[in-house]
Amino acid sequence: MLDSLTTAVTDTVNVASASGETLFVTFMKTVSSLAVPLMIFFVLVFGVIKKVKVYETFVDGAKEGFNVAVKIIPFLVAMLVAIGMFRASGAMDLLVKVLSVFTNRIGMPAETLPLALMRPLSGSGSLGLVTELISTHGPDSFIGRLSSTMFGSTETTFYVLAVYFGSVGIRKTRHAVIAGLSGDIAGMFAAIFICRIVFGG
Question: Measured at the alpha carbon of residue 148, what is the angle toward residues 105 and 28, in degrees to the nearest 5?
Fold first, then answer.
């Protein structure tokens, strides 16, 4: 395990040195490549230390997740129909035109604006937009990298509220909408800021 991690770090540094990347970009790429393996390794080690039956616990969680999935199907269908109506009515395109004046000033490409608006509503819809942007502009383009970062930095706020709150009978969400949308906005701005520092554009 340790040898594999050392080899991965060394390879990343060598590639970065050959391409002339900055130390910050090299560090971020190294962290990104090691984050998931280290997280899985940490969970397994922590489970062993705490004497938790990791596999059995995982299976129990999967069973519970299936039951939750069955409960949320009606709320999921209602949410997807509402999103489809919103896009088909042309309201999405109108909103993009109105907000593009502001986004141009903060250095946000107009092509990524539909993603920013769709992300709080639907994960599958925003994933489709990301796929379209990457296919059109390329995965290594600024728009491709920014759209991927925006997708990973935000959450499907209204989806979570409609589906999960509805499945357990919570009708008064109180501050959840404001808190969720605030997090989404912060994630969008952070994605633009970080991508401009790391990738330029």
Answer: 95
